[in-house]
């Protein structure tokens, strides 16, 4: 039995698009958009040389599995919103996977979390 989500050998990235913005936490995210509403999803990265982390867009192999999940639309309707000053409501990949009851990606020692649901 797998405890974590594993990268598939073959994947497509048809859903979600790269969104560049001037958010205080990140400068790029994966944006899921339905009509006028959108939901930005971010993933944390780590640079082992500088020991620094940053938030950015999702790995492309995650986007389709999230979008086609049976609970995605309900979650999207609860959390998504219209664009305000170039920014959309934002969630982390972990928040979304937990809410959809998906197996999460393995947690790294260097990862941080947000105390609140709103980012």
Secondary structure layout:
Elements: E1 17-20, E2 28-34, E3 37-47, E4 52-56, H1 60-67, H2 72-79, E5 81-82, E6 90-92, H3 93-99
Parallel strand pairs: 3-6
Antiparallel strand pairs: 1-2, 2-3, 3-4, 3-5
Tell me what the structure shows.
The chain has a domain at 17-99. Strand 3 (37-47) and strand 4 form a beta hairpin. The protein has 119 residues and is an alpha+beta fold. Helices cover 19% and strands 27% of the residues.
Features:
3 helices; single chain; six-stranded mixed sheet; 119 residues; alpha+beta
Summary?
By secondary structure, the chain is an alpha+beta fold.
The chain-level structural class is alpha+beta
Number of strands: 6
H/E order of the elements? EEEEHHEEH
Tell me the major beta sheet: 6 strands, mixed
Assembly level: single chain
Spans of at least 5 consecutive residues with low confidence: none
Supply the number of helical segments: 3
Termini distance?
33 Å
Shape: globular
Radius of gyration: 14 Å
Mean pLDDT: 91
Residue share in β-strands: 25-35%
In percent, how helical is the residue content?
10-25%
């Amino acid at each position: 039995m797998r405890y974590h989500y594993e990268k598939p050998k073959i994947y497509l990235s048809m859903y979600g698009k790269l969104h560049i913005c001037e958010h205080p936490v990140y400068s790029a995210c994966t944006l899921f958009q339905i009509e006028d509403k959108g939901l930005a999803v971010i993933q944390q990265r780590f640079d082992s040389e500088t020991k620094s982390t940053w938030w950015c867009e999702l790995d492309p192999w995650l986007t389709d599995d999230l979008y086609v999940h049976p609970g995605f639309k309900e979650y999207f309707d609860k959390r998504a919103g219209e664009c305000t000053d170039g920014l959309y409501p934002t969630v982390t990949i972990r928040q979304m996977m937990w809410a959809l009851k998906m197996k999460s990606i393995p947690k790294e020692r260097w990862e941080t979390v947000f105390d609140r649901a709103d980012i």
